[in-house]
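Input record, target 12 of the design panel.
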């Protein structure tokens, strides 16, 4: 599925637009800092996996999160993942 097909699937979801904006900003910042983005690597390689995980961590940081933090559990014993 290419980018245009994804945009057609979720055109009315405002959170989709926010996610797209965060992704674009993170890509631009990483490029400006000389870091690779996932599309700069060959899919399926160790480099691709490492760059993708680093990219996801940067996305989490851009939203004010800490990608290294442990999930906190509430009283029900259910963590953030659900």
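The sequence produced for target 12 reads:
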């Amino acid at each position: 599925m290419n980018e245009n097909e994804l945009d057609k699937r979720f055109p009315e979801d405002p959170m989709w637009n926010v996610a797209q904006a965060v992704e674009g900003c993170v890509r631009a910042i990483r490029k400006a800092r000389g870091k690779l983005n996932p599309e700069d690597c060959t899919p399926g390689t160790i480099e691709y996996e490492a760059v993708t995980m680093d990219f996801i961590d940067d996305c989490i940081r851009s939203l004010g999160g800490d990608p290294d933090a442990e999930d906190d559990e509430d009283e029900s014993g259910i963590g953030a993942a659900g």
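Residues 11 and 73 are 34 Å apart (CA to CA).
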